């Protein structure tokens, strides 16, 4: 879409009341990004971004105007693919929402400075920009231009980070960094790149283990007073680990959302993976995720495996640090939901309707 046809998000004080009312709920974990998606005609990122960035003083920190920030959000959102069922600007807005929620938690807030916060919010916003709806393995197997450019290494994550900066500095109207002092910009840029690259799943266990060993274990050891705990958290190396863990958890928080949101996201990611498997078969490429064959897949089984393999340990560790009892309750409830479906041998997102009385 050419930029001129994009609906322009209006300044915060001119937002339509239906959207403003939804945004009033933005600080709650139960906030429904899908309602915002519908109300904004699939432009949730620009509106939510304005609201959250204003709450965190991002314009003041970057020394840029709200108009510049608005143009930037619009350009970034325009470079997400609305045709992707999962990796679109609603997912980016969802990750931004979770990131802001985590940044407001006392222990997270007490560990990071404002540059870290701004880096996290910007990284969440851009972390999947221009995602093609296919995985790194697919791009490497298909010999795509991006895979060749990035030597088959963290292909998508490298692309998201690089493109985010290209789009930003290309036009002064949306260059949110143009008034920053150079050394501060370099530090911010480094932090954003590091967080976007941390969303690549091949290093998932390495990131989680480092966080547990460097932060959780020393903090829970006997006799560690508040001051000692703060010094553990606030070293530059450990702030790096906290920011990586924060964006990783925000990126895959779907199983910790209220059940209805969890079910909808499970349907969306499954559809994207089915489409990839279909294309791999059509093109004679290796099928990277054979369980995501739309004719045979059990969505409950795939969700159970994902939670068991990636989610439980990571969120246990993040909860021990940030204290997120509500999320852990949702996770337990959602896990039980998928388990029940699986025990009924149901392969779909929802249980079959009860049989009609004859």
UniProtKB/TrEMBL annotation:
Keywords: cAMP, Hydrolase, Metal-binding. This is 3',5'-cyclic-AMP phosphodiesterase. Signal peptide: none annotated. Its cofactor is a divalent metal cation. Pathway: Purine metabolism; 3',5'-cyclic AMP degradation; AMP from 3',5'-cyclic AMP: step 1/1. PROSITE patterns: PDEASE_I_1 (PS00126), PDEASE_I_2 (PS51845). AMP binds at residues 87-91, 128, 251, 303. Belongs to the cyclic nucleotide phosphodiesterase family. PDE8 subfamily. Zn(2+) 1 binds at residues 91, 127-128, 251. The lineage of its organism: Eukaryota, Metazoa, Chordata, Craniata, Vertebrata. Gene3D superfamilies: 3'5'-cyclic nucleotide phosphodiesterase, catalytic domain. It comes from the Eukaryota. The keyword Hydrolase applies. It holds the Pfam family PDEase_I. GO terms for molecular function: 3',5'-cyclic-AMP phosphodiesterase activity; metal ion binding.
């Amino acid at each position: 879409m050419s930029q001129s046809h994009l609906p322009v998000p209006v300044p915060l004080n001119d937002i339509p009341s239906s959207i403003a009312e939804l945004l009033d709920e933005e600080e709650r974990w139960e906030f429904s990004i899908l309602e915002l998606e519908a109300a904004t005609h699939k432009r949730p990122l620009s509106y939510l971004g304005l609201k959250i960035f204003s709450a965190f003083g991002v314009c003041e920190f970057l020394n840029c105007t709200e108009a510049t920030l608005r143009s930037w959000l619009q350009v970034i959102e325009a470079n997400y693919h609305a045709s992707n069922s999962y990796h679109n600007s609603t997912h980016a807005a969802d990750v931004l929402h979770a990131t802001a929620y985590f940044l407001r938690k006392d222990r997270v807030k007490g560990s990071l400075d404002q540059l870290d916060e701004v880096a996290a919010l910007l990284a969440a916003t851009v972390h999947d920009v221009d995602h093609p709806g296919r995985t790194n393995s697919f791009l490497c197997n298909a010999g795509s231009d991006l895979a060749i450019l990035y030597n088959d290494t963290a292909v998508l994550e490298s692309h998201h980070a690089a493109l985010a900066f290209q789009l930003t500095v290309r036009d002064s109207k949306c260059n949110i960094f143009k008034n920053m002092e150079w050394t501060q910009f370099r530090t911010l840029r480094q932090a954003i790149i590091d967080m976007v690259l941390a969303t690549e799943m091949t290093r998932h266990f390495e990131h989680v283990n480092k966080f547990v060993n460097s932060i959780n274990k020393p903090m829970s050891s006997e006799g560690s007073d508040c001051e000692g705990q703060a010094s553990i958290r606030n070293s530059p190396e450990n702030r790096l680990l906290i920011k990586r863990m924060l964006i990783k958890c925000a990126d895959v928080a779907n199983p910790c959302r209220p059940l209805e949101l969890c079910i909808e996201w499970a349907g969306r990611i499954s559809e994207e993976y089915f489409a990839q498997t279909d294309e791999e078969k059509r093109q004679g490429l290796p099928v990277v995720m054979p369980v995501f064959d739309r004719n045979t897949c059990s969505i409950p089984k795939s969700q159970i495996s994902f939670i068991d393999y990636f989610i439980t340990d990571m969120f246990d560790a993040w909860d021990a640090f940030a204290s997120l009892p509500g999320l852990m309750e949702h996770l337990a409830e959602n896990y039980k939901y998928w388990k029940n479906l699986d025990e009924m041998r149901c392969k779909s997102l929802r249980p079959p309707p009860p049989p009609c009385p004859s």
